[in-house]
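My main concern about presentation is that the manuscript never shows what a single data entry looks like. In essence, backbone conformation is discretised, so a fold becomes a row of integers matching the chain in length. An entry of this sort, consisting of the sequence and the corresponding backbone structure tokens, reads as follows:
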Amino acid sequence: MTTSTQVQHPDRASVRTFIQTLIPALALLVVAVPPFVDIVLDEVGKAGVNLPEWLYLALTGASVAWALVAAIVARVMAIPGVEKVLERIGIGTEPKRARLERLAAEEADETPVPDDYEPKH
């Protein structure tokens, strides 16, 4: 049975997922949030209310927390038992065609018979 790299190295898979999630989350924080916050601050300022200065820090923390949750989910999905369930429903790390070919080969037992083999009945 071929074991996927996610199952072989679940910690690496989790770190990769963390980084893959953190980069777009921080990009969103840098690109999309400032104009939104400016609009909110402008409207709030018109109302005479001041928002706390820790707002940006809280948003950054939320981005990191979001990436951490994604890494935890990736780590759980790398557990061999979970991977087997994912394969059964068609979303495992091994492509379905490769999995079916592997299972057929295991079923057929394609082990070559030695030339000098004589069955003993």
Observations:
- The chain has one domain: 5-108.
